Predict the 3D structure of the following.
Amino acid sequence: MKIAILGGDGYCGWATALHLSRKGHSVAIVDSFIRREWDKDLDVATLTPIRSLAERAGVWERLSGNRLEVFEGDVTDYGFLSSVFREFQPEALVHFAEQRSAPYSMIDREHAVFTQANNVLGTLNVLFAIKEFQPECHLVKLGTMGEYGTPNIDIEEGYLTIEHNGRKDVLPYPKQAGSFYHLSKVHDSHNMLFACRIWGLRATDLNQGVVYGTVTDETALDEALINRFDYDEVFGTVLNRFCVQAAVGYPLTVYGKGGQTRGYLDIRDTVRCVELACLNPAAPGECRVFNQFTEQFSVLDLARMVQTAGRKVSLKVEIQHLPDPRVEAEQHYYNARHSKLADLGLQPHLLSESLLDSLVNIAMLYRDRIDESVFLPRVNWRKPANRRQQDEKLMLTAGVVQR
Amino acid sequence: MKIAILGGDGYCGWATALHLSRKGHSVAIVDSFIRREWDKDLDVATLTPIRSLAERAGVWERLSGNRLEVFEGDVTDYGFLSSVFREFQPEALVHFAEQRSAPYSMIDREHAVFTQANNVLGTLNVLFAIKEFQPECHLVKLGTMGEYGTPNIDIEEGYLTIEHNGRKDVLPYPKQAGSFYHLSKVHDSHNMLFACRIWGLRATDLNQGVVYGTVTDETALDEALINRFDYDEVFGTVLNRFCVQAAVGYPLTVYGKGGQTRGYLDIRDTVRCVELACLNPAAPGECRVFNQFTEQFSVLDLARMVQTAGRKVSLKVEIQHLPDPRVEAEQHYYNARHSKLADLGLQPHLLSESLLDSLVNIAMLYRDRIDESVFLPRVNWRKPANRRQQDEKLMLTAGVVQR
């Protein structure tokens, strides 16, 4: 199958590109490399020393015999996106090409506006390009479990049967997103559903949980193929950050009580979920939603698991509760359905102790590259402008984030 | 009260500005005049000969003794919006400054992207400006009944109590908007709810139905104060268009079966609803939703009422069913609650036969200005690009819109 991966140089995108390439698909990576620019702007770096796309794509071709076609450009540029469709004619389009950090979108007005403009208008371009150039192409779009928020009822996969005043309908599940980034995905979901309805497009919205891990079967083949491993407060996902903190003896930074419960998955399951979605496309006019995670944990659950794993390799791991810089429930009901990908054949990699050990080991392997100054949260949801330099000084003085 | 009206030169905005000014409020009009540019771009004009804002604001000041402060600029320009807040320091902000036509947003990709960028990013700017400069300011934002779509259950005012698997929560009412314009309002609603939650802003989302009429107590005082009356297929609302069609003996253009049912209200009720919202502000942190309409009608109901009214003034009025250029249910359940504004004291102007007479009379009064070539729908929801010149020729030849 000809599969284009928008954002194929990023964390999930790179792993997915290699996985689909190994499975024999013809893969194109479409990327503007802006993710690498954000690292520079924020003065942070991935724990793992990733190579340029040209270099790692070259290594992959030598190792596997499979070529990754590369298109450099931005999906918000419709002329560029059109040329990708005309040249590559994808049968499936996997869309990771969005700004994906909640704290980044909450830095200030400029970052909020950028995030929503980039994500929502980019996805509008994708929908129009499919309709214009390749109407049978299956859109596999990365959403987020964060679109649902933390309602006091069970979370279903995209749609909810509602009975009200003696009548019944199946309606889009109500959305209560928790950042301007998560909201951008809510907006995308509404736009996608509409485009499928009016134009008969076929789409799968993958509401993904928090991803952890860095190694997949393909990236493990050569160090030059190594994937990103972000641990900073802006782009680092929580379990990755905890492992890095444990490796250098820094207390695990739990926001608030730590009862915040979310869905999680191993990056090896991310790549498999995307493959399953591509292999089993949505029908024309269908906008289906899969909740893409394998297990639920609270933040405090994770911290305690990392503590246990750390002890086994003689690390002394403490847990520090910081005032929550986000506006979110610190204790809440959470029960989210996630059976559709399992029904398609997903065999989950669960977060066992052994996996945690290997995560901590990776953090220890690249210990020299760890910058402790990027651990503490500097973006406060309650403030409309988080001037990062000032905040940093303030927090280093106070030892905690400002409420 | 100091009230700033974003989009105060437009159809609802101008009527609202005069009404609030007459009631003794200190009113500022904030407008970029882009609405007047769209008329030029589409080669259409309001039925009524509206004057420049400078002229009509001057006439109002001479007649009423009340000055309308004018700020010329665009809310997507944050520097400009900031200067409005610093200079005027509004206690309430009425936000009409959005691209408000569904067909306009469906012309092609450029118009869809423009509509969502203009509306969503403009409203983001408004939220940040309130938080930054005037956090107690009450945002009164124009939404649309079209956010809800046509679900098979009763429509509530913004929120719905849902019982599911033995648990219960009050959640945002699920949204199923029917155009990229209506979707932009859905996106706004989600962003507003979030901003109220994290920053304690106070907001009222007025989900307005289809507005009809042009005369209010204030615009009737002098012809120089006359309001817009749009009847073209892009910006004309359905009842206004039917009255103009009746006046020139053109068949009323009903899309499809005409069973499409929506909420409607007189523009004299629009201005009163906004006033009621301003006088009874939301609490800090509250994002409340009012369904702002007074009666439900199907399109065919309206066509038949115009037919009856036309006969009384000796007009021969025919009804023509065109293939529906929109993708929508032509027959459906529709029952939307609208009690919150009534609870605050709204006394509706119902669409009586006498009012219809006056609407038809206005159309006959300005009959010389009617351009029949703008009646027929030229924007087809099913096509991603509606090249208007070509479509026009095509439809004049075929006599109907192309499916």
User: Anything to note?
Assistant: The longest strand of chain A covers residues 138-144. The radius of gyration of chain A is 20 Å. DSSP finds 13 helices and 14 strands in chain A. Confidence is low (pLDDT under 50) at residues 390-403 of chain A.
